[in-house]
Amino acid sequence: MEFFAHHGCFDEERTTGTYFEVDVDLYLNLQQAAVTDNLNDTLNYQTVYDIVQKEMQQPSNLLEHVAGRLLRALFEQCETIDRATVTVRKRNPPLGGKTGFSAVTLEKCR
What we know:
The chain is an alpha+beta fold. The chain has one domain (about 1-100): GTP Cyclohydrolase I, domain 2, CATH 3.30.1130.10. About 35% of the residues lie in helices and about 30% in strands. The protein has a four-stranded antiparallel β-sheet. The two termini are about 25 Å apart.
């Protein structure tokens, strides 16, 4: 997922904003959905996107904090998740040289 957001420790980052990418890997029991082909028997991807979008709109200083908030929100709102991994990448971070991105990955189990 890609979002324009205002995360960072420096005032300019918080004011100007930049693009972020978020990868979410979810682990849950999908056996029923594999048989029924029914959306009610699985986790709706739209729900996951909406949770991530909402959390990305709240500025944080650290990518670690963003990833942690994402995990907490996913587990609070999606009871069927057993394990999740979230990676948050900040494109072109202001590090004084050419860099593609900086990233943080966090994982949580129920």
